[in-house]
Design a protein that fits this description.
22 residues, mainly alpha, 18% helix, globular, SCO3113 protein ( SCE41.22protein )
């Protein structure tokens, strides 16, 4: 969510928030 440009694996703490890979 906070880091949209970064890969979903770069933010394991919010990987669920990304909704892209999680």
């Amino acid at each position: 969510a906070c880091g949209a440009p970064v890969s979903p694996g770069a933010i394991p703490a919010q990987r669920e928030e990304t909704g892209s890979h999680g």
